[in-house]
Amino acid sequence: MQRIAPDVYVETVWPGINVGAIITSEGIILVDTPLIPEEAHLWRENLSAVSDQPIIYVINTDFHPDRVVGNRWFNAPVIAHEGVWEKARTYGNGFRQQLIDVLADECPQAVREMVTWRVTLPQLTFTARLTLYKGEQAVELIHVGGATPASSLVYLPEVRVVFTGDTVVHGMHPLGAQADSKQWLKALNTIRKMRVERIVPGRGPLGDKQDTYPLSEYIRQLRARVRRLYLAGRSKAEASVLVSEFLEYFPVPDDQRDTIRARVKGSVDRVYEEMKTGQDAT
User: What is residue 79's predicted lDDT score, i.e. its pLDDT?
Assistant: First the structure.
């Protein structure tokens, strides 16, 4: 656990996502939650070592399962964009079984706890912006879309920190299968205009505004290359030739190559559909 500003802590060592905590005089506000029960329990223990305040809110930055599944392990109201509520309410028995299948080999303890898992939906939603005032801390929730329709930032203006969720991922291939690539570029530009000194990305090491540029370049190049193939009359299947090219943009661990290849293909397919449906004529 790292302290990155007064009363602001993050954890970046667990597989999957980064999580954060904002400690106020009225309680602790979490930003996203660990998926694995053991990690969630450890996160709670680590926070109890620096504050005796209760957890009063959980904020989800989007609806990706690895951000919302862990809501259950914290007995607190969840706040998120209304799109998170719309998507997460579809996570039923079939979704739970998929999680169990994925975790069966590596996390048997998690599987035992997942048997009775039910999604904890947001109890408070917003559409554009929402500001929480707790003690001396202002916590601004800003919907930006892009990476997902529901993607939001969590901005702490007094300490110039922003939690970006998957709007920013650092040093790795982004998840683009549910993205609006043009809106994503706008979201990254929004972050660069903010008074921010520290960025907590959704995945990867901590950074600053300069770390948004490689991701912007990746998205711009992906859009340009897919557009060129689309205008040349190539099919979506033929556009998949770009996957190998874009795998070189960020490091790909050998044991994750198939996973990352599928991730990149999802991004290529999504941008192709944007071109095809006329969502993006430029």
Answer: 98
